[in-house]
Amino acid sequence: MGTLYLVRHGQASFGADNYDQLSPLGERQCERLGEYLRARGQRFEAVITGTLQRHLQSHDALARGLGQQHEALRLPDLNEYDSHAVLATVHEGPLGKPTTPEAYKHHFRLLRQGLAGWMAGALQPEGMPTYADFAAGVQAALDHVRSQHRGDVLIVSSGGPISTAVGLVLGTPAETGIDLNMQLRNSAICEFSFNPKRHVLVAYNALPHLDSPEHRDWVTYT
Description:
Layout: E1 2-8, H1 24-39, E2 46-49, H2 53-66, E3 73-74, H3 83-88, H4 101-120, H5 131-148, E4 152-157, H6 159-170, H7 176-183, E5 189-194, E6 199-206
Parallel strand pairs: 1-4, 2-3, 2-4
Antiparallel strand pairs: 1-5, 5-6
Helix pairs in contact: 1-2, 5-6, 6-7
EC number: 3.1.3.-
Pfam families: His_Phos_1
GO molecular function, one term: hydrolase activity
């Protein structure tokens, strides 16, 4: 039986022109995770990432902390949905950068609405796959792990694919993934045991590497 560690990328650049870059804190979060895993003597049989810049930067920072270099398999199926395209299905014109608590709430209310419509097949964001195809891509990544590996595997991805993976393993309705996604913290670990037949969820949204007073203000969600 193997163990799959699904890790969300470190803090990116929410509200910036280019979200797909780790912030300095995001770099530290992932490097700290690597240090934590190194202290446990963790080694990985395989590493898989999405192809977004924040995935690659998160893996690089984690590898520095871990003191190990890996030739990662890069799978586009592990990339995040396009939140701008999702928002455009429920809001005409671009949303301004949220700068107040109410603006943040409004942003995420609209995002939830757009995601629910996409998942139900009622809305189709431009340039994105259907939700059924998005979920099938995540399932294909899980199937790859089960069929190709027996040891410990690391996946670095984003909230959407990770929450979808959790929902697929648990057999929850697609919309449950919205709540799972909104709770995922940066650099958090979702742990699964797996064998050739199935995955089993062991831990969700864990931050053992930040569980200390000096790292309390390193916990972020976007």
